Here is the input.
Amino acid sequence: MMKERGLSKSLRLMFSGGMAVGLGLMAHSVLAQEVQAQAASSQIQAQGTVAQPVLLAQADGTQTAPAAPAAPAAVQKPDPSMQRVEITGSSIRRVASQSALPVTVMKVEDLAKTGVTTAEEALQTLSANQTSFTTSSNVGTSKTAGSSADLRGLGANHTLVLLNGRRLANAAFDGSSVDLNIIPIGALDRIEVLRDGASAIYGTDAIGGVINFITKKSYTGLNVSAEGIDPQQKGGSEKRVNVSGGYGDLDADGWNVWGTVDYHKQSQVLGSNRAISSAGGVNPNTGTTEASSFSPVANWFDTVTGAEGNPANASGCNFAHGVVAGTACRYNSQQTIAIVPDTEEISVLGRATIKLNEDNNLSFEYLHSQSKVNTLIAGEPQVGDFSGNPATDTVINSSSPYYAASGSTTGNPLSVTWRSVAGGQRMNQANNTTDRFVAALDGTIAGWDYKTGAVFAQSKAWDDLNGGYFDNSAIRAGLWDGIINPFGAQNAAGTAYLNAADLYGTYESAVTKTESLDFTASRTIATLPAGDLGFAIGAEVRHETAEYDVNDVLAAADSSIGTSPGTSTAGSRNVGAIFSELDVPIVKNLDMQLAARYDHYSDAGGTFNPKVALRWQPMDSLLFRGSYSTGFRAPSLYELHDPQGLTFTNSSYNDPVQCPNGVAIPGANASQACGQQFMKMQGGNENLKPEKSNTFTLGTVFEPVKSVTISLDYFNIEIKDQVSVVPEADIFADPVKYANLYVRNPNGSLDYVIDTNYNLGNTKTQGFDFGFAWAGPRTDWGKFGLSLDGTYVTKYEYQTEIGGPYINNLAVYSNGNPIFRWRHTATLNWSQGPWNAVVQQTFQTGYQDENENVTDGFVNHHVGAYQTFNASGTYTGFKNLTLTAGIKNIFNTGPQPSNVTDNFQYGYDARYNDPIGRAFFVRANYKFF
Here is the structure.
């Protein structure tokens, strides 16, 4: 834990006294909220470009907004390119073209033309978003976390996500990041992405960058849009409806009220519906041999003689999804799951703005979002401790009418590893709701631009069992009493017994809350020979709470849920911060940004983080920029307090002590030690310490001709004491190094491995972002535009222990994921009168596969490069009506085969590939008034 410095006591005094009086409400979130236009950069960006870098243009570094004329009758609208606005990454209002920071702007109207329907899909087109946790990635997890972004591949907990410049509550079941599913994309105007460390401006989490979702400031009229997406292959269809309405002119009436309702639904895709996943865990194309030892025709172990067998083995394990494995049978369980879950989301966002006077506005904003994710996985595994004791073991005895079917003639008790397929597949429903209320005041007083606000944000989540989960003690009793048949179909009594033992209800719930007050003020405080000296100051107080409730009855009844033997936990913290910034014109066309922030956490101590950035524009067509900053991330309440519980490993492993190289040692039970899904303990760790980071960027923007802009930015990031979990595959691959993570039974068999959060050492990454934008002239054939957003990573390495060796993760599957060497999105657009067309390509390079638990011929398997093409056309020739139609994944490119097995889904990696395939979409938007 960090020690409290002397400054923290003074900080609390300021918060409780003079600071509260002097500043009123205190601030956080100095992000751009009210950017009215693309400013000077819009002159050089390609029309319709989906991801556009905010670049410099024609403006001189010393320019400011024009002064208002003396007589109101003579007031003229200022040139939009010269209006002072807040730029992402700064607290000081300025001409947009003067930013020294690498910012990408994604216009929502352009995203809609490519068939993007969710915030998740929008960010997948961003090259700096190295990895992401998608809704599909939730399949098979014990806690459904939704979808998240991950700039630079540093983890979603290092990307700060904001709405209109202020924080959202993190997802309750992944309290380290925001669930992107709560963002109502139909209410957005644009998405701004700062590809730079920004802890000096925004505080914790902003190490990898900042994503700011910005809604419309005001709206009048009534607008309805509807969209449908229909894949060529079975499953995965989507529909979206958005209704937006607003009334009141802010300038004429002095107020505006608007709101939007956004509804989205997607149907599930079964693994059997796609070629890439239909092979399940036994895939000759990737070399995986991941069939489960938990079979619907049970494998048995004689607790007296040590003999093993399976009655279906002699016939080739010819039951559905059966696989021969020596004298046993295995079950290809992955063939039975839904690889894309059924999802339903609805979001409501409203905003009311009152114009107090010509310079000041009062606004109220409310967001409500709720989602349901229904997952479907294989029937539940049933296993005991192989003791032969019916109180703790899944065992049958010779009095069972099904004993003879085993093929054993000894009459000894038989421990069975059995999968309750007869009871149905396991079905979960994950429920998430988010509520956020903001009251804000912004404007100008005595020459100071200010904004202040109060925020209440809450995220709730609860996961329900909807069938296929059983009371373990009831299953053990049913086997011992001869009611359940572990070797074949159930009779009426067995079916009724399973139905009675089925568990339903909420097994875990969580609530996270954030309450904050913020204040920021900025102005020009002096005029230097080279221009105006800008100054900003601000403060924030924030209170965070998290509660995690475990249903003790369900947790005790069924170990596969993932919450046993967890208990309910809770945590809270108070956060206070003060920050300041200077915009210093050193000489003509050379500006410097100086920023600093002090944060104090009641549970992690204090931290001071500075930032310096330079912008030099030697000529109108050329700009250089660079920055250096330190960063800080306090462990989230979830990382600290998530209830610890047991669940099955995602993949099957050999006990490295009792079954080295897949061969059981004398006296060991192969059914227990070889090729098993073992138990692992997961959850929080209250002994975590904060992370620290250093970020350096250096870049240039060049405009060789007026219609072309090229940018190149270098980034270098190092994180110290990064919080993460050791990948389960690493634990089983190196039992000596991770000996302290193994928990064994008295007889030496493996009980479970510990896989909770730890400070694992450092992570280093560096590379380049490349941007290109061309806006062609208007011709008789129309107007063309072309853009490219790309990221090339030159280094990514990490430690799995403090002071340990660095492990390469670049273009190699390691530490639970690969880092792509190159990713890009290229967009070509055309417009002519009421017609518009867009063709977009996304591309990522390949990498060395996981290559664990595969046949010898695939130990060096390489996952190929992956690319998709989308095309769409839009027509606006009808009054108030916009029609769009297109094709996503024109060439029906399937996911690249991968032998990854530690993300539950097999055959491909759901985080980086889309299994939907070619899909057709139509969209209609009608503005009633």
Q: What stands out?
A: Residues 1-78 have pLDDT under 50 and may be disordered. Residues 6-16 form the longest helix (11 residues).
